[in-house]
Amino acid sequence: MTLPVLFQDRDLVVVSKPAGLLVHRTKLAADGQQFAMQMVRDQVGVQVFPVHRLDRPTSGALIFALSKEMARALAEEFSARRVSKTYLAIARGVLKSPSVRVDYPLFEELDDRADRGADQNKDAQEAVTDFELLAQAELPIQVDRYPTSRYCLVRAKPLTGRKHQIRRHLRHLGHPIVGDVNHGVGKHNRFFQTHFGSRRLLLACTRIAFRHPPSGEAVEVRSPLEADFSAVLNQLGWSAHAEG
Q1: What is the C-alpha R_g of the chain?
Q2: CA dist list (Å): 94 to 123, 130, 132, 203, 228
Q3: Secondary structure of the chain: what % helix, strand, coil (to 5)?
Q4: Is 187 within 8 Å of 41 (Cβ atoms)?
Q5: Is residue 62 packed enough to be buried (19+ CB in 10 Å), middle (13-18) or exposed (0-12)?
Q6: CB 125 within 8 A of CB 106
Q7: Can you tell me the distance from the alpha carbon of 172 to that of 104, in angstroms, rounded to the nearest whole number?
Q8: Catalytic residues
Q9: Residue 5: closest CA among 68, 53, 61, 70
């Protein structure tokens, strides 16, 4: 298995990570057999350095630096919020307005094993996400307490980079992402499994844009949706958005 390379030069490489693949080895996922970091290293033939996160169940554009110096430079770009990321997500219900900004601080999500020594009383951190309603559908099938079930396709642009930020902000709005086992609703996740054959988190990073640190040149990279995500869009009548 090789990862699709979306962009590459002498300083960095951007790949399309599939859902279910870990970025790097971690104690929290002992079942992991493959890791994007090692796969990209083998593909490009040099050591690579991750500069941002992409959750295991999330697919899409992922940047690796090809040197420690570039990793530091890109990390500064992310820290200064000069990197723009765009995601597509399928959520339960329908947003109440065509666009909404969620400015809702989030407490750090800590793991019982990996974060035993972390500050358990840390204040909530600033977290801001812009959401745009792209499409909606109402199915004549009762999944929850209503006789019909509504879903929507949203474009999300996180302005900060907190753990599970998009997933938690949509949950805060009352529109959890379909397929989210941590912040979603089991009934709707199971409905998409049986009705659409989807067993994944329906969240993907479809675009990433930044200024190339050495040259200042604008770089914009788009990542196509995986086939399973596109198949769900097609079944819901949203094929116009299937390219991400």
Answers
A1: 18
A2: 31, 15, 11, 16, 22
A3: 20, 30, 50
A4: no
A5: buried
A6: yes
A7: 8
A8: 55
A9: 61
In a structure prediction context, what are the per-residue pLDDT tens digits for the chain, which is 244 residues long? 899 999 999 999 999 999 999 998 765 555 657 899 999 999 999 999 999 999 999 999 999 999 999 999 999 999 999 999 999 999 999 999 999 999 999 999 866 454 444 455 689 999 999 999 999 999 999 999 999 999 999 999 999 999 999 999 999 999 999 999 999 999 999 999 999 999 999 999 999 999 999 889 999 999 999 999 999 999 999 999 987 6
Rounded to whole angstroms, the Cα distance separating 199 from 68 reads: 37
Residue with tokens 């500064």: 76
pTM of the model as a whole? 0.93
Of 182, 226, 180, 223, the C-alpha closest to 199 is: 180
Enter the DSSP assignment of 125: B
Q: Which residues are bridge partners to 153 per DSSP?
A: 90, 135
**φ, ψ for residue 177, nearest 5 deg:** -70, 135
Q: Which amino acid is at 53?
A: R
**How many H helices and E strands in the chain?**
5, 10
Strands 149-158 and 128-139 turn out to be: antiparallel
